[in-house]
Design a protein that fits this description.
Layout: H1 10-23, E1 29-33, H2 39-43, H3 45-48, H4 53-57, E2 64-69, H5 71-74, H6 84-90, E3 94-98, E4 103-105, E5 113-115, H7 121-130, E6 135-142, H8 151-170, E7 174-181, H9 189-209, E8 218-219, H10 236-248, E9 257-260, H11 267-278, E10 287-292, H12 294-304, H13 311-328
Parallel strand pairs: 1-2, 1-10, 2-3, 3-6, 6-7, 7-8, 9-10
Antiparallel strand pairs: 4-5
Helix pairs in contact: 8-9, 9-10, 10-11, 11-12, 11-13, 12-13
């Protein structure tokens, strides 16, 4: 391997760093709304309605730094006809875009996958940048069984994510790298921690090989937890320590921040565990915050129910969850202090979503 390469020019480095810092500013995280469901567009109406005294005092940008869109929802508009990207920009919120396409089976593996979408990625990223996007997300999935994740799956997905990251940076987008370990399985906490350490080490080796500018990247991993079928429960402090140790042993301090996904956790679980992570008494050179989807939206959608008359109540749920996670991202959330309609409901889903 040659040691000759070029970093991005100084102007591009500064732009990527500025975006990365903004996304992990203290007390803030990302709303991951990058699903392809038709309901996603309607969710954003909840952000734009400000018709109560409490809502007028609260700006969503106090706790949400960015929103990740799916391609189909990026170009939709609010009820007032304003493009979502512009509506968020006016609130000081950055726009992101999910750029991976679909999962493809790895031949010869035990039901493992890689992620497709590199072929036309440069052109798509250039267009998304013109349309107002500042960052992108690419998700790879790995599962824990007796024999997986295999070295083949780790190597393949690490290289795919590294190539994605390099392409994004070339088009002035900050790449969020999301190697997600699925919640399904009967593995224990120690096994999950070790798998995350090996996986993340492989990812950052690939990023180095592809000369990715780490200061202009963000990581979105899973929290370290026992598998859903293990029937093992651990106090939040144990989850926090295991997660922080896995990150400390694998992720370079040059990375600006770590944005955890909620996985199959309930809203309250995800918030409590994020709070525990930020209270682990070990050196953590990264901002450690959230990029939640269902763990930030379930109560909102349940309250809303597609009914216009429920928008105000649903928006109040959004405010509560955003505030709770904002506090957790700085280690100041009080367990049980925020009640919501689906706070303790686990969000179990299919292992692979196409």
């Amino acid at each position: 391997m040659t040691t000759h390469f070029y970093y991005p020019n100084k102007e591009l480095q500064e732009e990527l760093i500025c975006i990365s810092k903004a996304l992990v500013a203290p007390g803030k995280g990302i709303l991951a709304a990058d699903e392809s469901s038709a309901v996603m567009g309607k969710r954003f109406q909840l952000i734009g309605v400000e018709n109560t005294e409490e809502n007028r005092r609260y700006t969503i940008a106090e706790n949400i730094s960015g929103v990740i869109f799916y391609h189909e929802t990026l170009h939709q508009r609010t009820d007032d006809g304003l493009p979502f990207v512009e509506a968020l920009r006016k609130k000081g919120i950055l726009t992101g875009i999910k750029v991976d396409k679909h999962f493809s089976p790895l031949f010869g593996s035990e039901d493992e996958f890689t992620t497709q979408g590199l072929d036309d990625l440069a052109n798509r990223c250039a267009q998304y940048k013109k349309e107002g996007c500042s960052f992108a997300k690419w998700r790879c999935i790995l599962k824990i069984t007796k024999n997986t994740p295999s070295p083949q799956a780790i190597l393949e997905n690490a290289n795919v994510m590294a190539r994605y990251a390099a392409i994004c940076q070339s088009q002035r987008l900050v790449p969020i790298i999301s190697p997600e370990v699925l919640a399904t399985g009967d593995h224990d906490l120690d096994r999950c921690q070790k798998v995350n350490e090996i996986l993340l080490a492989g990812v950052y080796k690939a990023l180095s090989d592809h000369h990715v500018f780490l200061e202009g990247t963000l990581l979105q991993p899973s929290m370290v937890m026992p598998g859903l079928q293990s029937n093992k429960n651990h106090p939040p402090a144990d989850i926090g320590v295991a997660t922080v140790l896995a990150i400390r042993r694998s992720v370079p301090p040059a990375v600006m921040g770590v944005l955890f996904c909620g996985g199959a956790q309930s809203e309250e679980e995800a918030t409590v565990h994020l709070n525990a992570i930020n209270n682990v008494p070990l050196c953590k050179p990264w901002a450690m915050t959230f990029a939640f989807d269902r763990a930030l939206q379930t109560s909102i959608l349940r309250t809303w129910g597609g009914k216009k008359e429920q928008i105000t109540h649903a928006q109040n749920e959004l405010i509560k969850r955003c505030r709770a996670n904002g506090l957790a991202s700085i280690g100041k959330y009080v367990i049980g202090s925020v009640e919501s309609s689906a706070a303790t409901e686990r969000l179990i889903q299919e292992a692979v979503e196409f």
